[in-house]
Structures are given as structure tokens and as C-alpha cells.
Write a structure and sequence with these properties.
Strand content: 15-25%
Largest sheet: 6 strands, mixed
Radius of gyration: 18 Å
Low-confidence stretches: none
Shape: globular
Strand order of the largest sheet: 5-6-7-3-8-9
Oligomer: single chain
Length: 251
């Protein structure tokens, strides 16, 4: 992958299930070091797109590239470089955070001599140091989400795919997750593809956004660019929610 290429790129990517089109001719790119907000209502095709980018489902047409690899041919290489946090994360409740991450590290074939310090590093990074030996079954949803981020950080990823990381969290928990995402992007230059319904959170941290409706990408760009396209003025005059609703009403 050269410096001028997008770290995530799709060209006319489509996915059909029998006669139902989930994603239609999707073409977009995410640059290295960006936080890209991936927006759309339920059923818009966002999760299907993430699964195609990870090589977990095969596209009907089109191509994709993640970190320079084709997900259909080089899925294992992508999995070594990409961390994926799904909408619902499940853990063994009788394990504590350290045991959970040791289990994940073993599954990923991590070198034993590196395992200890890597686990300590990611636990402290996500703010679970004081709860590292507490049973995960007693964790709040926000703590489980932070443990999920610790899990995907074990492999020191170049890219994070986060599917609704603040869903179901109280305001304080959501703020902690958003601040953590920002710090990972800023301090470790991790590229983030963030799928979320919480538009005010996306507006706060995203460099650019893409809006998917009914399987199609109807808009892509910075919030300022999209506001000028729809309202003729910059993004400071309008919220992302207002911009999003304008696109949604016109489809």
C-alpha cells in the first residue's frame, strides 16, 4: 500500500441475498489516520459492508481493499492488522479481564513472553486497571465495551472497525468510550471506521462521514462539506443530525 492509497477502499461493492439488495455499488475510501463516521438507519447495509471488508461474507460484485489486501483472498492478513468490535460482545462471566485477554491472546497465537506486558498495557489503556481481577460477569455494559476495545488492541492493529460501540451506555460511559477512541486515533495513529446512530458523538470526533441509506452511499465528506452541499453554509451552522435528516428526506 502506497502513501497515496486509501487504507480502506471499495469499488462498486454490492451484496445481494436472493432478490434482496443489502449493499449496492458502494464506492468510498478511508485515509490512514482518519476517524470515519459510517452512518445510516437500521438495515442500511453498514454491518454487511463491515463483514465484506473483513472477508466474513463474499460480495456479489465489486472489489474492496483493506490495508492493501483483498478481503476475499487475503482475509487472514487483514485480521492480523484490523480489530473488529461488533455491536454485541459476549464473554465468559466467570473469568476476570486478565484471564479473558490471556484466552484471546492464546487463540491469536501471541508469544507467551509478550503476553503479560501487552495485556497490562491494553487494560491500563482502556481504564480497567482497577477492575482487572473482577469477574467479567459483574462488569457494566460500558466496562464490557472497554474490555472489547482492549481485546482488539492486543494485536496492535492499524485499523479499528467499531460497530455501535456506545449503544446502550449511559452518558458517562459513552463519553469515556468516545474519548478513548479519540486518544487511540491521536496518540497511536489508529484508523477508525465508526458505525453509530449517535450522531452528536460522531460529529464530535469524525474527520469525515459517509451516509448509507437503503444500501447506497448517498453522501461522503467532511461535515462542513456536506453542510455546504445541502444548506449552502458551513458545518458550524448545522448539526450532523440536521444534515443527516436532509439527506434522508431526499432519498
Amino acid at each position: 500500500m502506497t502513501a497515496t492509497e486509501s487504507i480502506i477502499k471499495t469499488e462498486a461493492l454490492s451484496k445481494r441475498y436472493n432478490h434482496q439488495t443489502a449493499v449496492e455499488a458502494l464506492s468510498f475510501g478511508v485515509e490512514e489516520g482518519e476517524i470515519f463516521g459510517f452512518l445510516g438507519p437500521n438495515g442500511a447495509g453498514k454491518t454487511t459492508t463491515l463483514l465484506m471488508l473483513l472477508g466474513l461474507t463474499r460480495p456479489s460484485e465489486g472489489t474492496a481493499s483493506v490495508c492493501g489486501f483483498d478481503p476475499q483472498r487475503r482475509a487472514m492478513e487483514i485480521k492480523r492488522l484490523v480489530g473488529y468490535l461488533p455491536e454485541n460482545v459476549g464473554y465468559y462471566g466467570e473469568m476476570d479481564a486478565v484471564q479473558t485477554l490471556e484466552f484471546i491472546a492464546d487463540l491469536n497465537g501471541m508469544d507467551k513472553k509478550d503476553m503479560g506486558w501487552r495485556i497490562e498495557d491494553v487494560i491500563n489503556l482502556v481504564g480497567l486497571g482497577d477492575s482487572a481481577t473482577k469477574k467479567v460477569g459483574a462488569y457494566s455494559r460500558g466496562m464490557k465495551q472497554r474490555l472489547g476495545i482492549a481485546e482488539v488492541l492486543l494485536k496492535n492493529p492499524k485499523v479499528l472497525f467499531l460497530d455501535e460501540p456506545t449503544l446502550g451506555l449511559d452518558p458517562d460511559g459513552a463519553i469515556r468510550i468516545i474519548e478513548l477512541i479519540q486518544s487511540l486515533n491521536r496518540e497511536r495513529n489508529i484508523t477508525v471506521l465508526l458505525s453509530s446512530h449517535h450522531l452528536h458523538q460522531v460529529q464530535k470526533i469524525s474527520h469525515r462521514v459517509g451516509i448509507m441509506i437503503k444500501g447506497k452511499m448517498v453522501a461522503e465528506g467532511s461535515i462542513d462539506q456536506l453542510a455546504r452541499e445541502k444548506f449552502g453554509v458551513g458545518g458550524k451552522e448545522y448539526t450532523l443530525e440536521e444534515i443527516y435528516l436532509k439527506y434522508f428526506q431526499e432519498v
